[in-house]
Specification:
Strand order of the largest sheet: 3-4-6-5
Structural class: alpha+beta
Shape: globular
Oligomer: single chain
Helix content: 40-55%
Length: 292
């Protein structure tokens, strides 16, 4: 009889010890899952710690992260968001019809469809929208950057970069890489301030958001926006661009920016924080449900 009591006591002690160990490991595993912050990490945690006090939170977070990941366009990749691909050969990109542009321009199909719908509505209202620039990959953007770098008369490299960055992006950091952004009608802010240009800009401000297009580079004095100067011609298709910006911020660093003169200045200038994310409040808050 006494032996049985001893065996039972040992079994109870073993169970208590095991539970304590699980609790300890559970906390450690939970810290690791939170640090990883991915759908897979939370799912692994749930499977390994079914009795943990953190399971409910892990399930909620996993579901939210899974939904967010599903919302990413299927073509999302580091190569796409940094412009390292040939858009003329990409299945998701199409050439803009000559009736909408005066040169060869490509956009993502979804962006282009939304633009055509917007242009049709504008035409009914007596406003003509013409695309003057669309997708620019790394090498396209590099040719612009290199030309401006070589022609700059500023004595320091940092000064050269900041001069160019008034209106042009470093390669690997341009929204034009994504096939979601387009420049309309004219590349001078002054054109949009009177006459036909003002009519166009007023119409865009009133109607473009209805078609998914937002102005990323607004008047900096209105919301303490950093980065590029105002560009009244630049409009971004946010149903795609919002996801790309989120992905970019999670997968690209200033140290990754390379392959052209002045690239080493990206960390010093804080390209991603000040320029990639130097966008209007509407664009910055687009993916935040609480802002709607």
């Amino acid at each position: 009889m006494r032996a049985n009591y001893i065996r039972i006591a040992i079994m109870i002690a073993a169970i208590i010890a095991a539970n304590q160990l699980v609790g300890c490991n559970s906390g450690s595993d939970w810290d690791e899952a939170q640090q990883a912050g991915t759908h897979e990490a939370y799912e692994n945690y749930i499977e390994s710690n079914p009795g943990s006090e953190y399971v409910a939170e892990a399930q909620t977070t996993s579901q939210a992260d899974s939904t967010r990941q599903i919302s990413l366009p299927e073509n999302t990749s580091v190569d796409l968001v940094t412009g390292h691909f040939e858009f003329q050969e990409h299945d998701d990109f199409v050439r803009v019809a000559d009736s909408f542009s005066d040169k060869e321009i490509y956009l993502q199909k979804e962006t282009y469809d939304a633009y055509k719908a917007m242009a049709a509505r504008a035409q009914k209202d007596g406003v003509r929208l013409i695309i003057v620039s669309g997708t620019r990959n790394f090498w396209y953007q590099k040719s612009i950057w290199d030309r401006k770098w070589q022609n700059s008369e500023v004595s320091t490299d940092v000064g050269k970069a900041k001069e160019i960055l008034l209106y042009s992006s470093m390669p690997m950091t341009s929204r034009h890489h994504w096939g979601t952004d387009l420049d309309l009608n004219n590349l001078n802010n002054s054109w949009f301030e009177e006459g036909e240009g003002k009519i166009v800009y007023d119409w865009l401000q009133s109607n473009a958001n209805d078609f998914g297009f937002y102005q990323p580079y607004t008047d900096k004095s209105l919301n303490n926006r950093t980065g590029y100067e105002e560009e009244k011609w630049h409009w971004s298709y946010m149903p795609l661009a919002g996801s790309y910006l989120d992905f970019y911020n999670k997968h690209v660093t200033n140290e990754d920016i390379s392959g052209f003169e002045g690239a080493d200045l990206a960390p010093q200038i804080e390209m991603i924080g000040n320029y990639v994310n130097g966008v209007s409040v509407k664009v910055k808050d687009y993916n935040d449900p609480s802002s709607r």
